Structure formats: structure tokens, C-alpha cells
Amino acid sequence: MDPRGALQQHVPSRKTSKENLDRFIPNRSAMDFDFAHYMLMEGRKGKENPAMNSPSREAYLKQLKDVFNMNRTRILAFRSKPPAPTELFSNEFLSPQLSKPVKPRRHIPQTSERTLDAPDLVDDYYLNLLDWGSSNVLAIALGSTVYLWDASNGTTSELATVDDEIGPITSVSWAPDGKHIAVGLNNSEVQLWDSSSNRQLRTLRGGHATRVGSLAWNNHILTTGGMDARIINNDVRVRDHIVETYRGHQQEVCGLKWTSSGQQLASGGNDNLLHIWDRSMASSDSGTRWLHRLEDHTAAVKALAWCPFQSNLLASGGGGNDRCIKFWNTHTGACLNSVDTGSQVCALLWSRNERELLSSHGFTQNQLILWKYPSMVKTAELTGHTSRVLFMAQSPDGCTVASAAGDETLRFWNVFGTPEVAKPAPKTNPEPFPNVNRIR
Q: How many CB atoms neighbour CB 167 within 10 A?
């Protein structure tokens, strides 16, 4: 629309038709000017001096008025009722915010919809023992055993149990296909399993010297983070699986997250450092140089979450001495905002349907908090766990969140609501004139 035309349309045009005039115009053809003149000048003299008229004269004047139709009290006459007032502005020019229907507020259940026992869950902030795969199967490590819970039918099965000499299990992570799963161990090894056949495929050795507490997939690349402060990219398709090494942390790497594009990796450590790594800067010969080294947190950085609607926005959470959720522009390395949550931040998850962020916490409330982004206003606080909520995982449809805590329970929360059903795209013809025969 032409902006000049839009400005002009806000000024109502002058109407010329009778129906739209804003004043009453007398109908002259319905007037009696002689009677009007008499009433104004002579007709009211008797009423002003009633004592001068005798009763017989009053009767005579009344009869005379009846004969000549002089009992009228109206001087001006109109044919029809006045027109209804016209609107100054048409509805089409009103602000769209006034006419837009208000979206109803989503109901957020305050209690978990399901609770499962999780005995022998290791109460360790630096581990990552819960993940929800794309095939709708939840994996959780309890001691030296990995269990699978199928969300489609509620059945539980045991995937693998490792010996005490190499356990306990310190991390689990589903591959993007939802079929294969990586299992990090206390002895520095990483096992790859096929969940459909409950069969171990291979073991990755030689990368780390101590336990592997964090895992992250990027297509066929499995990134591992260890207590030895190393970050290693492993190509699971080849025999010599170590293809890149990232060096920047001085203490245990407890958080790893790739962007959905696979271009940037975020890593958090017990050294209070947050690093951003870029694949374009990767080097197989020597340690890859980080893109950004961020030192704003004052405690271990484990909770990491890339924003689904803004590719360069990263949320990070700090441990007990920090308690903050920070937001970063990973292109520039700038800290956009910092919010003190009041307690240890254990995990972070973005909603895929709304601009919301979910955080899980430790002492004193051991709660989950739903935040509205970017205002960071608390939308809901979910309580039920009696110990710090160490791990969270999101269902494939983005609606349900599973949380595991030191109280050895696994809870499911319907916190992110039902996803909107996408409207089917209109069918388009591949050619401009499909019904016209081609000229050969």
C-alpha cells in the first residue's frame, strides 16, 4: 500500500448526499410562513395579557383557530427523522491490535502428569544421564545400567549393563536417527549401541584419560567432553575416529551443545568458562582455537541451550555460586542479558512452540521455572522434586519435559503445551499453464 494513501485515508472525506449530512435542514415546502409570522408577532399577545380577554372572546378565538387550523405549535417542519450519525473512521482503518482476537492464556499444569522411580540415579551435577530420542524413547542411566522407556506405549526395557570396573555410566546421548545411542563411561571409554537389537556396535578408546561426562551429536560426528578438560570430535564411521580436538578448558567439561545447523559448538566447564567453537576454524593437526571465550559466570557452566528461533542466541546457566541464566550473541560474543534465579541452574530447555525457556534448579526449592522470553518474567514454577533437578529432556514433539533429580524420581511435565497444527501448503502447479498441450 502506498504510505501516502494510507495517511490520506485516516482523514474522512466530506459527504454531499442528504443522508450523510450532520445538520438538520428545514423542508421549506412544508412551512406556512404566514402562520409563522402571525404566531411570532401577534398570536401570543393574548397569552401575555390573559386578563384583557373576556370568556366569550376566548371561546370565539378558539373556534376561529379550529376553523383555520391555527392550533399548531410547531413552526418548522421536517419530512423524515434525522439521519443516523456517520462514523468518522471506517473499521478498515482501525488499528489491527484493536480488532485482533486476544489469544487465550495457556493452562500450565502445576503437577507432573507421571512419576517413575529412578533408583541408583547418580546425584552428580557434572554428569548427563538423561536423553529423549527422536523415536520417542527416553534413555536414563541408573548406576551401571541404561534403561529405555518407550513413551508411545509406556514400556520399559534394559539396554545395557556395564561392569563395575568401567562404570558407572556417566553420560548418554541419542544419535539423530533415534536408533543408535552413545554411552559414556567412568573409565574414559564411549560405547555405541543399537537400541533396536540391543547390540553394542563399537567402543571409542584413546581419546580421554578420565570419565566422559558430556556428549553431543552433529550428524555422524560424536563430540565427547571429559574430566581431563578435553573436547574431542569422533567420526563414528571410520576406524581412526578422532578427527578434531578442542583445547580451552582447564577443568572437567560438563556441558556440550551443537547448534541445529552444526556450525557452532558451545562447551561449559567446571572452570566457570563458556567457549564457542566454530567448525570453520577446526584443525586436525593441533588444538582448535575457540571463537569466543566467555568468562562472565562465577561457577561451573553445565546448562546450555541454543535458541530454536534465533540461531545465534545461546542460553547458559551457572552453578551454585553463580545462579544466573545468561544470554549470548554468539556472533559477537556479547552478553545480552543476565538473570539471577536464586539457585543453582542445572539444565535449560527452549520451547519449540512459544518464546519461553524452562530451567531446572537445586537448593532451596528444587523447582522448574518457566520464563517468558525476552522479558524473563516467570510464567510458572513447578515443584514436586525433593532434591536438585539435575537433568531435563524434551519429547520429540516439544510438548513434554522429563526431569530427573537426586530424589531418584523421573517426572513428566506437560509444560510447553500442544504444538500448533501446521496448515497444509496450497497445491501449486509445476507449470504456469498445465492444461495447455506442449508444442513439440
A: 18
pLDDT band at 296 (very low <50, low <70, confident <90, very high): very high
Distance CA 174, CA 130 (A): 10
**How confident is the model over 32-60, as a mean pLDDT?**
61
Residue of 336, 334, 276 lying closest to 301 (CA atoms) = 276
Alpha carbons 314 and 310: distance in angstroms, whole number: 9
Q: Which residues lie below 8 Å from residue 279, measured CB to CB, with a gap of 6+?
A: 262, 263, 264, 265
Q: Are strands 180-185 and 137-142 parallel, antiparallel or unpaired?
A: unpaired
CB atoms within 10 A of CB 158: 11
Q: How far apart are CA 272 and CA 249, in angstroms?
A: 9
Give 303's strand partners.
317
SS3 of the chain: helix, strand, coil, percent, to 5 = 10, 35, 50
Decide if pLDDT at 294 tops 60: yes
Sign of the alpha-carbon torsion through 87, 92, 98, 102: positive
pLDDT at residue 153 greater than cutoff 50 = yes
- E strands, 168-323, are 169-174, 180-185, 190-194, 199-204, 212-218, 221-226, 230-235, 242-247, 253-258, 264-269, 274-278, 292-294, 301-306, 313-318
232, β-bridge pairs: 224, 245
Mean pLDDT lowest among 29-38, 74-83, 225-234, 338-347: 74-83
- Residue 100's pLDDT is 59
Contact (Cβ atoms closer than 8 angstroms) between residue 270 and residue 225: no
Retrieve residue 112's grid coordinates. Answer: 507432573
Mean pLDDT confidence for 252-271:
97
